[in-house]
Amino acid sequence: MSLTKDASEDQEDIKSLTMNTSLVDSSIYRPLVHLTPPVGWMNDPNGLFYDSYESTYHVYYQYNPNDTIWGLPLYWGHATSDDLLTWDHHAPAIGPENDDEGIYSGSIVIDYNNTSGFFDDSTRPEQRIVAIYTNNLPDVETQDIAYSTDGGYTFEKYENNPVIDVNSTQFRDPKVIWYEETEQWVMTVAKSQEYKIQIYTSDNLKDWSLASNFSTKGYVGYQYECPGLFEATIENPKSGDPEKKWVMVLAINPGSPLGGSINEYFVGDFNGTEFIPDDDATRFMDTGKDFYAFQAFFNAPENRSIGVAWASNWQYSNQVPDPDGYRSSMSSIREYTLRYVSTNPESEQLILCQKPFFVNETDLKVVEEYKVSNSSLTVDHTFGSSFANSNTTGLLDFNMTFTVNGTTDVTQKDSVTFELRIKSNQSDEAIALGYDYNNEQFYINRATESYFQRTNQFFQERWSTYVQPLTITESGDKQYQLYGLVDNNILELYFNNGAFTSTNTFFLEKGKPSNVDIVASSSKEAYTVDQLTVRRLTV
Fold first, then answer.
1. Chunked in runs of 10, what are the mean pLDDT values of the chain (539 residues)?
2. Rounded to whole angstroms, how far apart are CA atoms 330 and 310?
3. Which listed residue (6, 10, 13, 44) is catalytic?
4. Residue 267 and residue 275: Cα distance in Å, rounded?
5. For residue 470, what are the domain limits?
6. In sequence order, which residues have a C-beta less than 8 Å from that of residue 139 and are 6 or more positions away?
7. What is the per-residue pLDDT for 532?
8. How many CB atoms lie within 10 A of CB 22?
9. CATH no. for residue 105?
């Protein structure tokens, strides 16, 4: 589509294309419950909020409707959901003025008390929506605002934009929250290549004052992006702990230890103007390859801490297969809490835990189910689901608790592993999650027959992750718990009730994920599957 026509004609073309749901419904390999763009390109989630009047979740995102690669002009795409499983697509919400500009990442707040002065009594307080975003121009990045009087579907840009301009080309991704104690708006925004997260305050969303800098903390990589502050409940507080603590998140790209993009976080205290971390340790939100630009929802129900990330990696996001005319998806919506967790036998740390968040878990409909319990796993005793390969949705989940038997006679030179293999319904292809007895580590193998996967030098096939056991007995038995969600081309792993996670995309050359097998490499009884449930799902 050309963007050289009259601007109104361009907008109508883009609106028509974006809202053509038949493009989504007819896709073959598209994830079923993870948000994807109807056509074109998607990256960072933006402007997440919950409309309590309509009981609707809104997700905006970086959107190029004209191609399946990143490029200008860049819009805010828009989707809504009542259940966070099925999505309605809407026309792009905010667009640039010119083809060489972009509406970059930002956030949305609900201005209940009309501090901005944008609203009157004709707009319900619950729907007084203000977007705060980066306006990317050829020679500068500024922070601008726009407001909506129809619940977030269309926006009017503030006539006196920008609201913050520091004459920088690397100044972006504002995330705004309301801080009740001081009755002020608080913005975190990245001075990306100075390794600064700047904290601004405002009474009215228009006039902002710099309050402090959070800088050069943790793992720095090439640059900071997509910062944010939110509160998370402590699941198992110790004496003297508050009910909640503050979490500062930020994204790094490039420079992840695995290569490319990653999110890290800090736990600490916030007083309205300054964030003070409990320590300077680096903690990653997710140890997979495909989790970036996390953002939390504004006004989540029951004050829960829920959010979502872009499920891709800048190392290869522009090259992944696009047979259905789109690229990229979001992670599942997740709920976040803090929990004291043993990270080794002598240490316990307060870490950010996560689990998939569904409005109603029963909205995930079980088509078929397979169960195993109290079974030894050896090379001669394997098991797995045998769901029908026809009409598979590509949506599966599995919940597994297993024990590594500490008294098994295993030498250092022995290869004693087990693998959970997720199989295609049309070929011998499978991706695998494995565990090695001697190394006491999990590994992921997403090698397939896909030409992209075999030829892209950054789309690693294999890597490992360490997870401290959930329990260790006196005899040395180690128990782990694992939940996995498979959705066509994305695998989300949640270890030990979400204490550790790994999010990864994969691309089968043929077919869709349809079954799960568990196999072992040794005749030694090193593993016991305490409980395994595999479910074939739909919505």
1. 41 65 68 98 99 99 98 99 98 98 99 99 98 99 99 99 99 99 99 98 99 93 98 98 98 97 98 97 97 99 98 99 96 99 96 97 94 97 92 96 96 94 96 97 97 96 96 96 98 98 97 97 96 97
2. 5
3. 44
4. 9
5. 364-538
6. 169
7. 98
8. 8
9. 2.115.10.20
- Tell me: do 161 and 186 sit in the same domain: yes
Is residue 139 within 8 Å of 115, Cβ to Cβ? Answer: no
pLDDT at 29: 83
The residue behind tokens 């990696």 is 313
Considering the domain boundaries, does residue 2 fall inside one? no
Residue that terminates a domain, selected from 303, 332, 356 = 356
Residue 427's CATH number: 2.60.120.560
Neighbour-count burial of 355, counting CB atoms closer than 10 A to its CB (0-12 exposed, 13-18 middle, 19+ buried): middle
Domain count of the chain?
A: 2
What pLDDT shows up at residue 391? 85
520 burial class (0-12, 13-18, 19+ CB within 10 angstroms)?
A: buried
Any catalytic annotation for residue 280?
Answer: no
> If residue 90 lies in a helix (H) or strand (E), which one and from where to where?
strand 88-94
Q: Do the domain assignments include residue 31?
A: yes
Residues 267, 391, single domain; the answer is: no
Query: Parallel, antiparallel, or unpaired for β 129-137 and 102-110?
Result: antiparallel
Rounded to the nearest angstrom, the gap between the alpha carbon of residue 127 and the centroid of all alpha carbons in its chain is 26
Q: CB 281: neighbour CB atoms within 10 A?
A: 13
- In this predicted structure, what is the pLDDT of residue 191? 98
**Judgement on whether residues 339 and 387 belong to the same structural domain of the protein:** no
Secondary structure of residue 460 in the 3-state scheme: coil
Please, what's the largest Cα pairwise distance for the chain?
75
